[in-house]
């Protein structure tokens, strides 16, 4: 009888240990897919599940316990607790479903070296970073025929690229794609600094000097945008005269004071144009 | 009223006794509060920027990241223990803020909580975008976690957790945009 009592006490002490030792789950689990938790024994118990989605408490029957995909949407570590025993498992990202693409800048000079930057973040449908290395293609071009492609493998869910801007001005499509997913950004390529400024001068009826540039372009042949300031300068014995004019329809023109002998120059930003020595019969 | 010499002696004796008691109490509380003072120093953070790519991390940026990331974890630990999702507003943004606030709300609705004792973080910068708009960290955190149902501790564990973190700069601080725990490497 005494032995029986001891046996019952021993079994009561050991039972939770035996039950708790075998709480297990096959892992890793894919986000949103759900999972099966194995809890040996029979009868009801309270299951707790702590993880990035929150913490839930549920009455369950021991045996095979189904954990719904909705409770395992987010990647990370989950801890299941049942009658004081616990088991941890990891949920990993589902397949790629979305790319978050950061493209900089939105406006860039044409033919600028390494001026266009792109970072692509790869996510599954639940906004988990897809950590498996994934090939990503970046493309920058103003049309389908021209442009530059660059291939990169993602690391820890991120792929990045640094590209030269195209030679022609206009809206360029900057595309990041991986698998069936593709994201498009527009980078406005604008003419760079003028490459060379040529001007000529003529005498007006009232004796003043009319100066006008040839079409102003960057080194790739793109017209420098209207509104860009061009500075005309005249230096003579009386001193210096400066006139700022805006480019209009590709040209800049201005009227400088009459002079019998002057040196005329033109500049836009840091770019100098030609000089004209004005005087006498010229 | 004029006090007698014997009364004066008694006063001095009481004052002396009170002063000694005060000193003893101060010492007692001083000693008692000593471990608390050590604990208040908080978890240690180490940041390694040598693998940062494609952009290198400047010293001032590194200091800001360490400071802001430490604040973020302090707020996460407090929020998970007290079930106060609003504590994450300052240091979390985007997906991370939305996810963790939602997780805390669910936890609170179920009467559950997590108490974390944070023993420190070993951080390594693995990506810093050329334009400085995003920075990715790997964090190995040394944590003690207690899972609770009301006041009852359900289970506890001491683990080294690996986190993948995406930080983005805000007006005057770095904020956590993604905080995902990874399987052990």
Description:
The complex is a heterodimer of chains A (282) and B (185). Chain A is built from 1 helix and 21 strands. With 282 residues, chain A is mainly beta. Chain A folds into 3 domains: 2-92, Immunoglobulin-like; 96-190, Immunoglobulin-like; 199-279, Immunoglobulins (Immunoglobulin-like), CATH 2.60.40. In chain A, strands 1, 2, 3, 4, 5 and 6 form a 6-stranded mixed sheet that branches. The longest helix of chain A is centred in the N-terminal third of the chain and has 20 residues, at 2-21. The relative contact order of chain A is 0.10. The model of chain A is unreliable at 10-21 (pLDDT under 50). Chain B is of the alpha+beta class and 185 residues long. Chain B has 2 domains: 1-41; 43-182, Nuclear Transport Factor 2, Chain: A, CATH 3.10.450. Helix content of chain B is 41%, strand content 35%. Chain B is built from 3 helices and 5 strands. Chain B has helices at 5-40, 59-82, 94-109; strands at residues 44-48, 112-128, 135-149, 152-169, 174-182. In chain B, a hairpin with a 6-residue loop joins strand 2 and strand 3. Chain B is globular and about 55 Å long. Residues 25-39 of chain B have low confidence and may be disordered. Classes of the chains: A mainly beta (282), B alpha+beta (185). The A-B interface holds A 28, 48, 50-57, 74-77, 79, 81, 84-86, 88, 90, 92, 102, 104, 117, 119, 121, 127-129, 131, 155-158, 160, 162 and B 54, 95, 99-100, 102-107, 110-114, 126-127, 129-131, 133-134, 136, 138, 145, 147, 149, 154-155, 157, 161, 164, 166, 178, 180-183.
């Amino acid at each position: 009888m005494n032995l029986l009592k001891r046996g019952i006490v021993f079994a009561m002490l050991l039972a939770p240990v035996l039950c708790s030792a075998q709480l297990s789950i096959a892992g890793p689990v894919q986000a949103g897919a759900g999972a099966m938790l194995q809890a040996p024994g029979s009868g009801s118990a309270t299951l707790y599940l702590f993880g990035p989605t929150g913490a839930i408490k549920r009455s369950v029957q021991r045996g095979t316990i189904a954990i719904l995909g909705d409770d395992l949407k987010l990647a990370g570590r989950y801890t299941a607790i049942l009658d004081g025993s616990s088991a941890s498992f990891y949920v990993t990202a589902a397949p790629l479903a979305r790319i978050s693409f950061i493209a900089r800048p939105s406006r860039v000079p044409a033919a600028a070296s390494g001026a266009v930057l792109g970072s692509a973040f790869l996510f599954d449908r639940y906004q988990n970073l897809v950590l498996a290395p994934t090939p990503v293609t970046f493309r920058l071009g103003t049309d389908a025929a021209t442009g530059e492609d660059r291939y990169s493998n993602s690391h820890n869910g991120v792929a990045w690229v640094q590209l030269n801007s195209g030679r022609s001005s206009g809206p360029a499509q900057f595309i990041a794609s991986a698998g069936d997913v593709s994201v498009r950004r527009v980078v406005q390529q604008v003419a760079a600094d003028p490459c060379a400024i040529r001007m000529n001068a003529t005498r007006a009826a009232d004796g003043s000097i009319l100066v006008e540039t040839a079409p102003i372009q960057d080194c790739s042949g793109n017209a420098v945008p209207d509104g860009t300031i061009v500075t005309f300068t005249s230096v003579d014995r009386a001193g210096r005269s400066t006139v700022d004019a805006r480019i209009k329809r590709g040209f800049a023109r201005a009227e400088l004071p009459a002079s019998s002998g002057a040196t005329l120059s033109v500049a836009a930003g840091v770019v100098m144009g030609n000089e004209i020595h004005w005087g006498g019969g010229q | 009223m004029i006090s007698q010499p014997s009364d004066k002696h008694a006063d001095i004796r009481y004052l002396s006794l009170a002063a000694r008691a005060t000193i003893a109490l101060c010492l007692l509380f001083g000693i008692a509060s000593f471990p608390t003072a050590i604990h208040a120093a908080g978890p240690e953070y180490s940041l390694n920027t040598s693998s940062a790519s494609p952009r290198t991390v400047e010293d001032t940026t590194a200091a800001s990241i360490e400071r802001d990331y430490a604040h973020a974890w302090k707020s996460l630990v407090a929020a998970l223990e007290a079930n106060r999702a609003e504590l994450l507003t300052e240091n979390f943004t985007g997906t991370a803020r939305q996810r963790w606030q939602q997780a805390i709300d669910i936890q609170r609705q179920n009467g559950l909580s997590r108490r974390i004792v944070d023993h420190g973080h070993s951080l390594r910068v693995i990506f810093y975008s050329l334009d400085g708009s995003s920075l990715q960290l790997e964090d190995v955190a040394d944590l003690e976690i207690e899972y609770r149902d009301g006041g009852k501790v359900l289970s506890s564990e001491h683990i080294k957790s690996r986190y993948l973190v995406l930080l983005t700069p805000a007006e005057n601080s770095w904020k956590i945009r993604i905080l995902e725990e990874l399987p052990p490497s």
